[in-house]
Amino acid sequence: MADRLTLDSSVIVAFLNKRDTLFNDTERFIQGVPIGKYDVVIPTIVVCEVANVLSRNATPMAVSGVMSYLEAFHWVSLDREETLSLTSHFSKYKLKTSDAIVAGTALRYRATLISWDEKLLRESRKHFTSFTPTEFLKKIRS
Questions:
Q1: pLDDT tens digits along 10-49
Q2: Are the C-beta atoms of residues 6 and 86 closer than 8 Å to each other?
């Protein structure tokens, strides 16, 4: 198992919304995984997706706090080199563009993908290690 994780926006958004059906499981993941042990690599599109959801549903102070939290992670910018690298993997997946970017980032950085998105997990598991937050927590505890 990789010492790197790539978190999909579905995980971060579920953690930020106490009314989300996956909030409790996501909270257990966030509290149970020693994040300092892992290099968390996220493409900037994840940051944008999270910020977009927050901007519709949270106060500016809450948005600022979450952005500060995300700054602890390694952000992968979609510059020319990164884009060319990621797009070379797109044919492996039958995913919408943002999910293909997330999957490609995990693959490129040899990270374990963590997501609640069933289609993203199904497609990515054909090529590299991917878990739901609950599955990953069970794996590291066993």
A1: 999 998 888 889 999 999 998 998 867 899 999 999 999 9
A2: no
| CATH assignment at residue 40 | 3.40.50.1010
Alpha-carbon distances of 18 from 44, 45, 61, rounded to whole Å: 24, 23, 17
Is the pLDDT at 131 greater than 90? The verdict is yes
Residues sharing a CB contact under 8 Å with residue 116, sequence separation 6 or more, in sequence order = 8, 10, 11, 14, 22, 26, 132, 133
pTM for this predicted structure: 0.90
Q: List strands edge to edge, sheet with 130-131.
A: 74-76, 39-43, 4-7, 112-114, 130-131
74, 39 contact by CB (below 8 A):
yes
- Report which of 96, 90, 42 is spatially closest to residue 69, judged by C-alpha positions: 42
Full residue range of the structural domain in which residue 78 is found: 4-141
Quick one: pLDDT band at residue 66, thresholds 50, 70, 90?
Answer: confident
- The number of distinct structural domains making up the chain is 1
Q: What is the number of other CB atoms lying within 10 angstroms of the CB of residue 59?
A: 9
